[in-house]
C-alpha cells in the first residue's frame, strides 16, 4: 500500500493537472484527421496514464484519471455560441468519433489501471541461477548383452 505523504499529494496534484492538459489536448485533436487524430489522442492518453502510474503509483494515477475525465466532460458540453468539440449525433460527418473518443479514453484508464504491478516495480531482483543442461543418462553395459566374440558381435570387433 502506498503511504500518504506530502510528496504523494504533490504528485497527485501534478498528475491531476497533467490529466486536464491531456484531456483538453485529446479532445481538440481527436477530430483532426480521422481516424489518425483519434488514435494519436488515445495513444497519448494511454502513454500518460502508464507514465504517471510508473512515476507515482496509484494515488497520482487516480488524480490523472480524474483530471482527464473532468477535462473531457467539461469540453464535451455545448459552448456559449453553440459550438461543440465532441459532436455525437446525425448532424456531423463522423457521428461515431465523439463516442469513440469518450469511451476510448475510459478504456485507456481501465487498461492502464489493470496492468500488472510488476511492470511498474523497480526493485532489483536477485539474479537467476543458470540452467544446467540435462545430460542424457547412459545405461550401464549389461552383462547379458553382446560380447566382442559372441553371436551379436559387430564385424569390426567393437562392442
Short description:
The protein is mostly helical. It has one domain (6-120).
Explain how this protein is built.
The mean pLDDT is 84. The radius of gyration is 31 Å and the shape is elongated. Helix content is 51%, strand content 0%. The chain has one domain (6-120). The protein contains four helices and no strands.
Provide a count of the helices.
4
Sequence of secondary-structure elements: HHHH
Task: Please give the alpha-carbon distance between the first and last residues.
Answer: 69 Å
Low-confidence stretches: none
Characteristic key phrases:
4 helices; 159 residues; elongated
Question: What does the secondary structure layout of this molecule look like, with pairings?
Answer:
Blueprint: H1 6-29, H2 36-56, H3 58-75, H4 97-114
Helix pairs in contact: 1-2, 1-3, 2-3, 2-4, 3-4
Transmembrane segments: 9-27, 33-51, 58-76, 96-115
Region (Disordered): 121-159
Keywords: Membrane, Transmembrane, Transmembrane helix
Amino acid at each position: 500500500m502506498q503511504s500518504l505523504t506530502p510528496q504523494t499529494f504533490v504528485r497527485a496534484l501534478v498528475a491531476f493537472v497533467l490529466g486536464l492538459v491531456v484531456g483538453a489536448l485529446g479532445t481538440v485533436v481527436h477530430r483532426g484527421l480521422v481516424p489518425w487524430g483519434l488514435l494519436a489522442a488515445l495513444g497519448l492518453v494511454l502513454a500518460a496514464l502508464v507514465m504517471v502510474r510508473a512515476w507515482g503509483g496509484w494515488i497520482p494515477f487516480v488524480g490523472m484519471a480524474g483530471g482527464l475525465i473532468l477535462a473531457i466532460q467539461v469540453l464535451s458540453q455545448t459552448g456559449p455560441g453553440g459550438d461543440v468539440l465532441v459532436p455525437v449525433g446525425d448532424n456531423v460527418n463522423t457521428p461515431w468519433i465523439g463516442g469513440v473518443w469518450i469511451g476510448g479514453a475510459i478504456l485507456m484508464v481501465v487498461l492502464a489501471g489493470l496492468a500488472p504491478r510488476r511492470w511498474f516495480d523497480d526493485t532489483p531482483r536477485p539474479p537467476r541461477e543458470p540452467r544446467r543442461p540435462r545430460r542424457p543418462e547412459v545405461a550401464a553395459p549389461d552383462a547379458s548383452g553382446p560380447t566382442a566374440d559372441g553371436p551379436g558381435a559387430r564385424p569390426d570387433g567393437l562392442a
